[in-house]
Each structure stands twice: as structure tokens, then as C-alpha cells.
Amino acid sequence: MSLRLAFMGTPAFAAASLAEIAGAGHEIVAVYTQPERPRGRGQASAKTPVHELAEQLGLPVFTPDSFRDGDVLAAFEALDLDAACVVAYGQILPRRALDAPHLGCLNLHASLLPRWRGAAPIQRAIMAGDEMTGVQIMQMEAGLDTGPVLMSETVPIYETDTAGSLHDRLMQVGAMLWPRTLAALERGSLSAAPQSEDGVTYARKITREEARIDWARPAGEIADMIRGLSPFPGAWFALPGAKGEVRVKVHFAVPERGEGEPGAVLDDRLLIACGRGAVRLTRLQREGRGVMEADEFLRGTAVPAGTRLS
User: Fold this and answer.
1) Is 47 inside a domain boundary?
2) pLDDT tens-digit profile of 201-212?
3) Quick check: helix, strand or coil at residue 201?
4) What is the pLDDT of residues 21-54, one digit of tens each?
5) pTM of the shown model
6) Where is the domain boundary, 202, 237, 258?
7) Does one domain contain both 238 and 162?
């Protein structure tokens, strides 16, 4: 016996879960994802990773602009679902949608709730210096990531992790949670653990302004921020040049000993003074160019000791 499911998701992180659910033999009668939108430098219209995978699997795909539309909700209710599996869909589901499947809507979230509820849990965990995170599948409620937890897996955060590397590990671990969760749901053996209201934090969306490096902060905080914003949107600073300032993204940095005015370059190998200590910039990206290791970057862009970064 298999469950009658809808899948709702958009990015590659969600596509991995769709692949595992499909492989577990459940009946996926509908896949919901965001509409095609312009992407990349050419701004050509492109399907989401979930849309592309669903088509490869021969699954019907729906791309409503809003799940609050009455016709969209009526069509969703008419699917007569056992459950809906939601992963980074990108739309807030109204109560009517949450109540439509017989066993409700289940959501995969990339943190150990109630820490880092919200839009950017992977980035925020690294930026905060957390040593541990995880993935959890919860029963969805009307509140933001407030539902009881059904299945959980912890994942360490290494000092070498960026948001990109941690994203990829959590994507795979989270995808593997679905077959176990759905098998237990089918048996009626899932236990729901209500979230504590102690230790609640919110992973608000990363803003462009927030990504600018404040050299007055301690070196450890700056290194964590850089890792947490790599590869996207990328922590950045302004490098002075003969033709004006150039924006440079930093994709990795290591705290080191060093003293000086915040933002001062302390040697010819990109050691930058911070509010406390210093950071060595090891992987950078000049505006309009690809990511480079520090040695390669310096061969094309001189940043001598005494330069002030802003």
C-alpha cells in the first residue's frame, strides 16, 4: 500500500526530496512549484529544479502564482490526498490548504527547531557560530515553522563549512528522512513532539545591505559571516582603486592574530585587521569575475599592506 501525495517545492534542495519520495513507491498525483521566472545573466525564463525533475519522472506539474486563489485551493482539495510533502516551496499555505489532505501537510526544515525558524536557517546557523544543526520534518501549522516535530536528524557544522557545503549535506540527509517518515505515517506510528518555546530564534532573510563586511566586528564573527554567506549572496567589501572603488566578495576567511585599525591591510597576503584580531582572506571574487584563491586574486589585483578596506 502507498500514500496518495502531493509534493510542493522549488529549488534543488527540494528536488532531492522529491527523488527520494518517488523512489519509495508512493503515488505522487501532483507536484506544485513556483512559476517560470527569468534567471541568470541572460534573464531567460527557466523552470525550477523541482519542475524539471517532475517532468523527467512523468509527474503532473502545477505552477500557481498564489495558493490563496479559490480555484487553486478547490483543485488541491479535489486531489483527495493522504498528505502533502513540502520542501522550500516559496509560498505560504493558507489554513484551507493545510487542512485539505487527510493526514495534513508535512514540511522539511533545515534546522533544529525552534532554533532558526524562517527563511535562511542554513546561513544563520553558520553566521551565529553554531556547532550543530540538522533537518526536521514537522506537521505544518498556520504559524511560521511552529508545528510539532515528526522526524529529526542532527548534522555537525565544521569549521570548513560554508552555506554551500552545509546546504548540500542537509539536502541529502533531509531527503533520506522522507521514506522513513512516510512509512511511519502509513503505519500510524509517527509520534509528534511539540516544539518548546524556549530558545526560539528567527532566520530572517539575508539582505543585500547586511552582506557588507563590518571590519569593526571581532575576527571570529566576520569569518563566520563570510562562511555563512558563501556562495550566495556573498559577504563583500569595497576595495579602493585608481578608477574608484571595486566590490569584492569574500568566500572564505580564517581568523588570525593581528592588530590595527579595522579594515587596514596588515601584510601583502590579505591579512585584514578587525575590531578584535584579524582575518586572512583566502578565497575572493572581484566584481564581474569568477571565484579565485588568494594567490591568484593577488596576481591580478594588488592589495598592499597599508590599504584600507571599506
Assistant:
1) yes
2) 999 999 888 999
3) coil
4) 999 999 999 999 999 887 666 667 899 999 999 9
5) 0.95
6) 202
7) no
